[in-house]
Amino acid sequence: MSLHYLVTGGAGYIGSHLVLALVEAEHRVTVLDDFSTGHRWATDGHEVIEVDIRDLAALRSALLHRHFDGVFHFAAKSLVGESAQKPLLYYQNNVSGTANLLEVALESGWGHCVFSSTAAVYGSPQARVIAEEHPVNPVNVYGETKLAMEQMLSAVHKQGAMQAVCLRYFNAAGAAPDAHRGEWHEPETHLIPNILRKAAGEDRALTIFGDDYDTPDGTCIRDYIHVLDLAQAHLKAMTMLHREGGFHTLNLGSEAGYSVREILEACETTVGRPITHEIGPRRRGDPARLVADASRAGQILDWRATRSLGEIIESAWLWEQERQNLQAR
Ligand code: UFG
User: Fold this and answer.
1) What is the C-alpha separation between 213 and 180, in angstroms, rounded?
2) Which end of the chain is less crowded, N or C, counting CB atoms within 10 A of the terminal residue's CB?
3) Going by CA atoms, what residue is nearest to atom 11 of ligand 1?
4) C-beta 189 within 6 A of ligand 1
5) Mutation choice for ligand 1 from 144, 222, 251, 290, CB with most ligand atoms inside 8 A
6) Using CA atoms, how far apart are residues 165 and 150, in angstroms rounded to an integer?
7) How far is the CA of 19 from the centre of ligand 1 (A)?
8) Which residues contact 50 (CB under 8 A, 6 or more apart)?
9) Using only C-alpha atoms, what is the Rg of the chain?
10) What is the mean pLDDT of residues 52-76?
11) Alpha-carbon gap, residue 158 to 177, rounded angstroms
């Protein structure tokens, strides 16, 4: 059955991959984005509403009383470092913006929301793998705002007004280069695109942030998940909400941990040559190890990550070459 979904932040990295998946599943999509970090080329062919979610009057005027079968909520500021520099921007955009969106959702009768949350809500856990029961204790403003957004959704659910799933992503990576989609942040802070931009010849330093962690090779371990696997989980989460309702918090990760060095070596294998890098000091706030226990998503959504680290890096490398061409135009 074809349904009509609102995707806030649908011009961004993960949101635009979800839009692809929704279209493949023959749903209708309306994208809401302020294009502060999203890309217009990522929304071609869809209805686009250009609104800043901090602006309640503009949101109301664009959306009030329209019908949507559900909302996928991605619109948020998402840089950990920036969140320390501009905390109020993060609280206004992420927390107040979500309150505005939910207000219009409730006034308009949209009852289903899949929310883009993050493993950053766990802070610096000591556990080898992190399940949803792990205490939440964000250690940066970005994580604090995402936790507040989850709590807001939970409160609205308790009111009986909204069925919701909060998806806590570990490290989203990879691309859909055959559909001209991929990661493009300015500035870029994430490991895999930073490595591949260097490999593509960009005049930039590539630094490994710390090699003295308590891990086998001294560099931080993360759980990388292909953005197309994430997109599938969103579709399944919305389908489950329509069927069963409720309020759910689910980790999305591959359950495999790779160190920064292992990622660098995998990138070198994919590009076929060594990639110049240096070892720098630790980056503030980086936990040594973050690996998901994603079994709850397996049980509730019948979902698991299917794409390997090799597929993640190969797709990201194909996209990086396309992105370099787009950037050169
Ligand atoms: N790293 C480097 N050099 C770089 C970039 C990153 O060594 O140029 C290291 C980081 O120190 C970290 C690992 O590579 O150990 C991964 O870093 P990313 O910046 O790619 O990702 P993070 O794990 O810091 O962040 C991700 C998401 C955030 C989310 C966080 C949850 O991108 O949105 O996981 O902890 F908040």
Assistant:
1) 37
2) C
3) 209
4) yes
5) 222
6) 9
7) 25
8) 33, 34, 35
9) 19
10) 97
11) 41
CA of 57 to the centre of ligand 1 (A): 36
Q: Are 50 and 31 in contact (CB under 8 A)?
A: no
176: nearest Cα among 41, 11, 323, 315:
315
Q: Tell me what the mean pLDDT of segment 239-268 comes to.
A: 98
Under a CB-based contact definition with an 8 Å cutoff, are residues 73 and 116 in contact?
A: yes
HEC per residue, 249-280: EEEECCCCCEEHHHHHHHHHHHHCCCCCCEEE
Ligand 1 neighbourhood includes 80 CB (under 6 angstroms): yes
- Please name the residues in contact with 122: beta carbons below 8 A apart, sequence gap of 6 or more: 130, 134, 135, 136, 137, 138, 168, 290
Q: Would the pLDDT of 45 be above 90? A: no
Computed over every residue of the chain, the mean pLDDT equals 96
Q: Which two tokens stand for residue 173?
A: 């990576």
User: What pLDDT does 15 receive?
Assistant: 98
pLDDT tens string 27-41: 999 999 999 999 998
Q: Please state the rounded mean pLDDT for residues 71-76.
A: 98
In total, the chain counts a number of residues equal to: 329
Question: How many angstroms separate the alpha carbon of residue 190 from the centre of ligand 1?
Answer: 5
139-166 per-position pLDDT tens digit = 999 999 999 999 999 999 999 999 999 9
- Asked whether the predicted pLDDT for residue 1 surpasses 90, the reply is no
pLDDT single digits (tens) 198-209: 999 999 999 999
260 lines ligand 1 (CB under 6 A): yes
How far is the first Cα of the chain from the last one, in angstroms, to the nearest whole number? 40
Between helix 309-328 and helix 260-271 the angle, nearest 10°, is 60
Spatial strand order of the sheet with 47-50 comes to 47-50, 28-33, 4-8, 70-73, 112-118, 163-169, 247-252
Locate tokens 């891990």: which residue? 215
Ligand 1 atom closest to residue 122's alpha carbon, by position in its atom list: 35
Q: Which of 5, 142, 213, 258 is catalytic?
A: 142
How sure is the predictor about 285, in pLDDT bands with cuts at 50, 70 and 90? confident
